[in-house]
Automatic annotation (TrEMBL):
SUPFAM superfamilies: Calcium-dependent phosphotriesterase (SSF63829). Residues 413-643 form the Prolow-density lipoprotein receptor-related protein 1-like beta-propeller domain. Residues 1-20 form the signal peptide. This is Uncharacterized protein DUF5050. Keywords: Signal. The lineage of its organism: Bacteria, Bacillati, Bacillota, Tissierellia, Sedimentibacter. It comes from Sedimentibacter saalensis.
Amino acid sequence: MKKLVIFAMMLMFLITSCSINTPKTNNDNTDNNAEENVVEIDRSEYLTGEIITDGNYEISSGGIGSICFVPDKESREIIKDKYSIYDLYYLNDESYFIYYDNLSVTENLPKDLGIYKVKVKFDLKNIYNYDRFNLIDITLFDNIGTILYEGKSYETNDLDLDVKVKDRVLGLIVDSVDKFGDEGFRVSLCGEIETEGYYNIFYGELHGRNLGIIYYDEKYEEYVPMMMGECNNKQLFYFVDNKDLFSQLEDYSSFGRGKFKISNFHIVYKHGMGREPSEILTEIVSLDEGYKNMFEITDKAETNVNGYNDNFAIVSIPAEYDENNYAKSFDYYYINKNISKKVHLLTTEDNYFLGDVISETEFVLKSEGYDEKVGAYGVLNEIKCKITDQGAVLTYPSIAANEKIDKFNLSAIDDNYNRIATDGNYIYYIDIKTNYINRIRLDGTGNETISKQKCYELYYYDGKLYFQGYKQLNSWISCIDTDGGNYQIIYGDKEKLINNFIIHDDIIYMTVFVEEQEAGYAYGFYKYNLLNGEMETFDDSIALPQSPGLRLINDKIYYRIDSKIREYDINSGTVTEYDTVIDNIQEYNDCIYTNSRYSIMRHSMENISEYDKIFEIDDGFLLRKISIIDDLIFFTYCHDYTKVDKSGIYVDVMNIDGTNRKNLFYFDYSTLGHYAFDTIYVLNDKLFIISRDNEYPIFKVFDFEGNELWSL
C-alpha cells in the first residue's frame, strides 16, 4: 500500500512538472480546470506572448521599425487594465505592433518566418503622433501563458470575414486584422510575395516624396491573397522606401518591368477611398534590360501609368509646365511588354486612360469629365489607336454634338423586358454578362459601367434610373443618378418579393408577393407614392405572375389575372376586365399591337378584345418579340421547336400593314426557343438586338437595311 501511495505522488509530480513548459490552448476540448496546472509567471516587468515575424527587422526611412506581438491571455488582461486609461484606439485588437528605433533590440530574434514565444518589455511613447508601445527589451521565452488562438490555414488565396491573426495563407501569416463597421476590413500579412510585372515610381504630393507601385501580371493573381473574392488593391503593390532598393529603381527608370519580392502586404476591403503605401520592397530579383533609362528622374518622378494589361502599358509624362510649375500638357506613350520600346501616341492637355482593347496593337484612349452638352459626367473624348511599324496611327471621332435620342416607343421598350432605358442623351443598358448598369452614346462611343448594382429591369424616370435587384429574394426597388451616383433604396420589404414594377406620375405600380399557393407564389397589385411613402392596393385581387406583367399605355395599366386581361385607369381608379389573353402589348398611333406565337394583331384602344390580324408567321415558325415605330414592325421569330429540332433567331421588318417583309439578321441561339432571352429595341433610326443566351450572347446595332453599325 505504501508503494502505491509513493507511485501516485511521483505520478502527480511528473504531471505537474510537464505543465510548466506546456502552454494552455483555449479551445472547446480544453478542461476548464487546466489553468490551475499552469505555473505562475512573473509579469511585473515583462509580458509574455508570441511574435509574428519574417526576420526582417529593418528600420524604415521614417526611422522606426516594428514587431507584431500577440499577447497570451494573462498578459492581454494586464495590458487592458494598465493602459485602458489612455484610450488607445488599438487596445482591443488581436495583435499589437511594438515599435523601436534601435536595431540592437532585435539582434537575437529569429530570421525565418514564423510564430515565436517571447517575453517583452515596453512602455508608451509618442510615435507617428500617437501613443504607441515602445520596445525596451525582447527575448525568446518558452514559458508563456494561455494561447487564445492557434490559427487556421486557408487552402486558397481567398480570405473570408472570419480571418484572424495567426491564420496562414499561401505561406504568409496574418499579423493584423482591423475591422471597420459591418464589413470593412484591413488585413496585413507577414512574409514575402514574389511577382513579376510593371513598376512605376511617382511623386506623391501628399507624402512629399517618391512612391512606388508594382502592377503584377494577371497570372500571379492566384498567388496573392484577397478577401471575399475581391480586393480593392488587386494586381497592385503600393510600396515605400527600404534600404537602397528604391534608389536602384529610380536610377534605372521611373517606369519598367521586373521580378520583385515584397513584404508587409495589406488588403483593404470595403473601407475608405484608398490606402497608404504599406508594402515593403525587399528584393529586386531582376529588371528587364529594355527599360533601362527609358524614363529618367531629374527631380520628382512624374511618370503615370494610364492603363495596362499583360501585353502593353500606356504611360504619360508631363510635356509642358505653366508659370506655377504645374503640368500643362502630357506626352502619352505605348510600351509593349516584349519589345520594350516607347511609341509616342500624342501630346495633349487632356487626361486620357486606356479604354477598350481590341488587340495587342489596337486600343482606345478615353478622357472623362463633365459634358456640358448632355449635362452629365461621363466620357468626353475617345481616340482609336493602332500601332504599326512606322509608329502610332490615331483616329479621332467626329467632334459633332452627341446625337440626341428623340424617337423611340416607350411601350415597345417596356414590352421587351426593359433591358435598356434612355434619357435622350445616353442609352443605359444592363450588361449581358455582369448585369451591371452601363451607359453608351447612340453612336457606340463612351461606353462605361456607371453602377455595379446588379439588376434585370431598368427604367428612366425624372432624371434617375430605377431598377430592381438581380435575382434577389428579399427584393427592393432602388435608384441612382444617371452618372451612377447617389444610390438609394426607394422601397423594400424583407418579407415580400417584388415581381415587377412601372412608374407613372411619382407613383410606383408593382406586384408584390402575398402568399404561396399550390401552383406557386401569388402576388398582389400595389401602388407606392414616391412623395409621401404611402402604400395601397390598386386591385384587390391576387394572381400568379403572368404575361404581360404590368404594362403602361397612356394613362392605363394592363395586366393579366387568370385567363383575362384587366385595364386599370389611373385617372379614374376603375378596373375593366376583358375576356381575352395577351402576352405582349405595345401602343402606336392610338392603336394597341400585340402578338401571339403565330400572329401580330392590331387592337382598338377602347376595347382590346376587338382586333384585326395583320400578319401571320409561316408554318413551322414561332413569333417571339415585336417593336413598332415609324410605321414599321420589327419582329423576331424562331423555328417551331415542337416540330423542328433547329435553333436560331431571325430578325425581320415589315410595314405597319404587314406588307414588304424583309429579313435583316440571323443569330445563333443555344436553345430551341423555349426561353425568351432575346429582345429588340428601336432608337432613332437604329435597331438594337440583344440576346442574353449563355452560349451566344450578342449586343448588336443595325440600320434599317440590316447593316451592322457597331456592337459590344
